[in-house]
Specification:
- The chain has 114 residues and is mainly alpha-helical.
- It has one domain (3-96).
- It contains four helices and no strands.
- It has helices at residues 3-15, 26-38, 43-68, 75-98.
- Helix 2 runs antiparallel to helix 3 (43-68).
Length: 114
């Protein structure tokens, strides 16, 4: 895989997480597919796909926590903040990976290991 292809696939791993806006669990499925299909061909793509998958797992867990907190009337505001944070961080990661930089999301559970 050429470096440009690696950067494109790594960028796609991050950007594909936005599929979660269209499909339930699309934000988890899309980076997982990139990890399984292109990860074996490139360590960079595998690392970035794992990072995207870990971030989206963390976002789903945080979203469930926000939903649980809606009974205290703070969950709705937290959920809006979480969605905005998720979109912004996904876009930043997409650009960084596209430029060939290994991006690590802050405040992320690293559940999917190499």
């Amino acid at each position: 895989m050429t470096p440009d292809q690696e950067h494109s696939w790594a960028s796609l791993a991050h950007m594909s997480a936005l599929m979660g806006l269209l499909l339930p669990f699309g934000g988890l499925l899309a980076p997982y597919l990139v990890l399984r299909l292109k990860g074996p061909q490139s360590a960079f793509v595998a690392a970035q796909a794992r990072e995207a998958l870990n971030f989206n797992i963390t976002a789903v867990l945080a979203g469930l926590l926000c939903l649980a907190l809606t009974w205290v009337l703070i969950g709705g505001l937290l959920l809006v903040a979480l969605v905005l944070y998720w979109i912004v961080m996904t876009l930043i990661a997409t650009v960084q990976a596209g430029e060939g930089h290994e991006y690590r999301y802050p405040i992320t559970l690293r559940l999917v290991k190499p």
